[in-house]
Amino acid sequence: MVQDANQNTLRSREFALNYLNLIYEKSFRDLNLSNLDRLFSIAKTYKIQKIFDPSEYISKLDVIPVSLAIAQAAVESGWGKSRFAKEANNLYGHWTWGGKGLVPLNRDENKTHKIKIFNSPNDAVDAYVLNLNSHPAYTKFRENRLKFHQNELIYTGLDAAKTMESYSAMGKIYVKQLEKTIMLYDLTKFDRI
């Protein structure tokens, strides 16, 4: 599932970069409007600020280390045994403030968030990948990943876990929990596939 989501992200990135190259080679009048709409859609989805700047697509449309995704799903969903995983296909603890969601059993009375309901585990993985690739809280994650890739190094889940403090209210304890899970189950082997 994570590899599929990563491949979809890379396909969008490839389209965006190829289309941007085409834009620079031609005038705007000669461009296919449906492709331009697709570029705008990708930019909106990934919260791209400078629509015609390739560097932002390179930074935001990239793969998530599989070991990190596995570890976070395990930690967030209690290895798939949590109520949220079973009733909402929610593997990553995503919240919503909209209509559709599960109310956490111990939610404070003054809180209004719900646990987002996904149609399938695949949808939860897609949302997770998009979240890490687009949310401002994970800018450091993306910056580090870009540096690794520019130096032709594998960005492992252990490297990425260090940037996940803001993913959970547990902060540094959460990071340690992710690192322990990745090491205990030798999950970095999946980052090399």
TrEMBL record:
Transmembrane segments: none
InterPro entries reported in the protein's UniProt record: Bax-like (IPR053195), MGlyc_endo_b_GlcNAc-like_dom (IPR002901)
Annotated SMART domains: LYZ2 (SM00047)
GO MF term (any one): amidase activity
Domain of life: Bacteria
Domain Mannosyl-glycoprotein endo-beta-N-acetylglucosamidase-like, first and last residues per copy: 39-186
PANTHER family tied to this protein: PROTEIN BAX (PTHR40572)
Descriptive protein name: Mannosyl-glycoprotein endo-beta-N-acetylglucosamidase
Gene source species: Campylobacter hyointestinalis
